[in-house]
Structure formats: C-alpha cells, structure tokens
Amino acid sequence: MDRDARALDQHALLPRLLHGVEEADATMRLLAHTLPAPLVPTLDAWQTETPTWPLARLDADLVPRDAGDQERILAHLLLRIPVGRMAEVMTTARRLGALAPAGVILDLTPMTDPVPFGTSAWHPRQREELAELRAAVDRPVWIDGIVSPGDAEIAAEAGLDGVILRSAAGRHVAAPAAAEVLPEVLDTVAGMIGVYVAGPVRGGLDVFRYLALGAEAVLPDPGNETQRLAGELRAVMQLTGCATLEDVGYEAIFAPLWEEIA
Fold it and tell me: What integer is the mean pLDDT of 235-250?
C-alpha cells in the first residue's frame, strides 16, 4: 500500500474551474456491460450495489459445480482461478467456461511469496500454456498479478484479453509500483490487450490517477465501497474539467515546465 500510494502521490493534478462541465459522466462499456464507473468490485461490494453495478469478480472455488439458477448471475462475474498445476487449472477453466461467465481471471497473486520468502507454491506460466487456456475457456481471459512489460507482451501474444497490473508480485525484488510501470506496459502492448490495475486505492483520486496514466479500469481490493469510489471519481473529473472518461489523460497531470525543458 505504501509503495503504491507514494507512486500515485507523485502525480499531482491540475484543477480547472473555468469550463462547462457541470456533471461528469464516468460510465464505460466493459465485457458487454455498461458500468457506472471504470471499477470492477469484488462480489461482497457488488452484492450490496446490484443492480446499479452489473459486473463483479468472484473466486472460482465458490461457484458450485451445478450452477443451476446461478447462470444469470455468472454472466455478470469475472471468475478468478488461482494459479496451480496446469492440469488443475485447465480442468477448472473448462468447467467455468461452460457456465458462460462474463470472463475468467488467471490469478498469479498466490505466487507472491515463494519459498524462502514465504510458503507459496511456484507455478509459472508460459506463452503456449496461456494460449491453450484461452482456447479451452472460449471466454475473455485476463491475467492478474503481473508487473512487467515483458509479461504483458507474452500475455498479448498468447491471445489473452487483458492484463491486470498488481505491484504485490514484485515486493521481494524491489519492483516498481503499478503506477510507475503502467506507462511502459502501455508502450509495449497498447492496442493489443486491455490493461487494468488492481490493488489498494484510497479514494476516487487514486482511481483517476490510474486512468490518467492509461489504465482502462481499476479492480479495487476488497473492503472498498465502490459507490463511494465512483462518486469521488466523478467529483475529481469535475474539478479537472473532464466531462467523460475520454477526457481523462496525461493533460490532467501537473508537469512543471522546468522539468519538460530539462
């Protein structure tokens, strides 16, 4: 949290008051859904905000094998599969793909603390395995937990649909915060694959900063009130003169002239 917060705080915004933006529109289309803001909450937040929040994410092991009446709900969920042995991942992926969820996330975050730093099992993935996973699921597939332009490029080459940057994976190797690596990731894969950010956010200002740096949407950690984040995001958009998400970009970030000359 501290590392991500420090990186975001390096990006001051320029307030603008002389403009015609009375109300900011933060809606976006994502995975066939219209979202009130570019946020994908966890299920606990989503359940308290339905139907105003049509998309959420859920751990795959919480989905019963016989979905039954839950099929309507699954169409609104990104189901998260933890990384493991490839045979196990593929079995779970095929089962989930048959349930037709909004999409599937391959979650690499369990690899964050490998031995000797922790007790996590080490199950890296290769390009060919990711391509096999995408073909087996036949649904949009995102990969969560990377913090490297090289990993994003491999995911794009494998035919995945999105990468989720998360700084936690690099804490034992002094890796950059998500906000620091985001521009380089976009330089590498922009237009090839969706680029999203996950992790701790303190409020709508942090969400705005990620969007201004180029993220398409933010997946806040559990415990965040999605409606609060969305309301604060719209307020920040008003204060920076952004009528829609298309207006949110580098122009809103303060860059002193003397730094540009240097």
Answer: 97
Domain boundaries, the chain: 2-261
Distances from the Cα of 226 to the Cα of 12, 48, 126, 170, 255, angstroms: 23, 10, 34, 26, 30
CB 143 within 8 A of CB 164: yes
Give the tokens for residue 205: 């200002």
Res. 238 pLDDT band, cuts 50 70 90: very high
Q: How far is CA 6 from the centre of its chain?
A: 19
Integer Cα distance of 144 and 127 in angstroms: 15
| Both tokens assigned to 97 | 């793909």
Q: Please name the CATH architecture into which domain 2-261 falls.
A: Alpha-Beta Barrel (3.20)
Mean pLDDT of 101-105: 95
CA 165 vs. chain centroid, Å, equals 7
Give the pLDDT of residue 70.
59
Report the half-sphere exposure of 146 (CA within 13 A, side-chain side). Answer: 23
Reduced to 3 states, what is the DSSP secondary structure of residue 163?
strand
Copy the structure tokens of residue 58: 């859920």
**pTM for the whole structure:** 0.93
